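Running this now, will post back.
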Amino acid sequence: MSEPVPAARYAARAVVIDDARRTLLFRAKVPGRVGRFIWIAPGGGIQEGEDELACVRRELFEETGLLDPEVGPCVWQRDHTFRWGTGMLRQVESYFVVHTAVFEISTENHEEAEREFLDTHRWFTLEELRSHDETLVPGNFAELLAPLLRGEYPANPVTVGI
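Update: finished.
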């Protein structure tokens, strides 16, 4: 008998692009999978009473120290069910573009769970993403990022996969 599909957890993420044309990703430990890491865009779960834009702003402040960024359009959407620790998680994510000046990341506002889950962070150029050998989420992050770096945004959010 298969496990029931869990209820969706809604999340909002930021594709942060700085003036040096780099994007910010966090290396996250995968619970229940020793030595397994993924690189993800900043963001997280939408809290009760919060909309996607408020979530992106809050998460960026918590995870990076960036205060009140100008959030651009939603460019990607992702609906993915995966093993997380001992259970399954279905996460429905919206990705928003955020352009910013170059800044130093501050992790002092991380919540306890973020301190345990987020291993490190790094600014990537497109070329570095294309040659990176660890798992990016979504898996074709570099391909999806390229048009954003040229200022080309989809008319409607693109559905992205794993």
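The radius of gyration is 15 Å. More later if anyone needs it.
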